Amino acid sequence: MDLDTPRLRIRELAPDDLDALHALADVDLSGAGVETRAERARWLEWTVLGYGQHRRMHQPPYGDYGIVLKCTGEIVGLVGLVPSLMPFGLVPSLAADADRHRYNLAEVGLYWAVDTAHRRSGYATEAAAALVGFGFTELHLRRIVATTEHTNTASMGVMRRLGMRIDRNPSPAPFFLQVVGILDNPGGEPDWPTGP
């Protein structure tokens, strides 16, 4: 996947990106916290291999993609589509009252992270909007979700700028499902060919 916006290029990562990714000190690549260079190298290898495997298996292009400034070629963050398996039935707008439960449900999740030095420039919104457009027009997704914590007002701001409706899990658990941004495909159902 390779997408362009007015200021950004969203592209697959490559082994040569290790130094640039390691310099993104404020971007947690694995979700495990502070990472060594060797840990980031293993994550990068896994990510790069994943692109080819998803294509080979005719699967969606799940994973992380570099947010690159067109004017400098610098990687300033990551954006991606990820399988998101969470108890979305706990979120009021994603389940009817009679269907409220703690079973995990699969959704397509949207992810973004921008290094501190490049925040407050609109890069997260611009990159995420490009992926939303791709997800709705090319992948024909019904909806895209994003999750964050109650305290992450910056991410909630990105959700709002993307046009997501924001809902909150009224239950204190699980901690990773506090705030959910939900964006439905505005184009309606795709028009698939009906036969040969």
Structure explained in plain terms:
With 196 residues, the chain is α+β, with helices and mostly antiparallel strands. It has one domain (2-184): Aminopeptidase, CATH 3.40.630. The chain is 26% helix and 27% strand. The strands form two sheets. A five-stranded antiparallel β-sheet has the order 1-2-3-4-5. The protein has a three-stranded antiparallel β-sheet with strand order 6-8-7, with helices on one face. The longest helix has 20 residues, at 37-56. The chain is globular and about 45 Å long. The two termini are 28 Å apart. The model has no long low-confidence stretch (mean pLDDT 88).
User: What share of the residues does DSSP label as strand, in percent?
Assistant: 25-35%
Please tell me the total number of domains. 1
Number of DSSP helices? 4
Helix share bin:
25-40%
Please report the total strand number as a whole number: 8
Terminal Cα span: 28 Å
H and E order: EEHHEEEHEHEE
pLDDT under 50 segments (min length 5)?
A: none
Q: Any idea what the CATH architecture is?
A: 3-Layer(aba) Sandwich
User: Radius of gyration, Cα only, in angstroms?
Assistant: 17 Å
Summing up helix and strand content along with how strands pair, one would put the structural category as alpha+beta
Mean pLDDT: 88
Shape by Cα distribution: globular
Instruction: Provide the spatial order of strands within the biggest beta sheet.
Output: 1-2-3-4-5
* CATH homologous superfamily (4th level) name: Gcn5-related N-acetyltransferase (GNAT)
CATH class designation: Alpha Beta
- The biggest beta sheet, please? 5 strands, antiparallel
Q: Kindly report the CATH topology.
A: Aminopeptidase
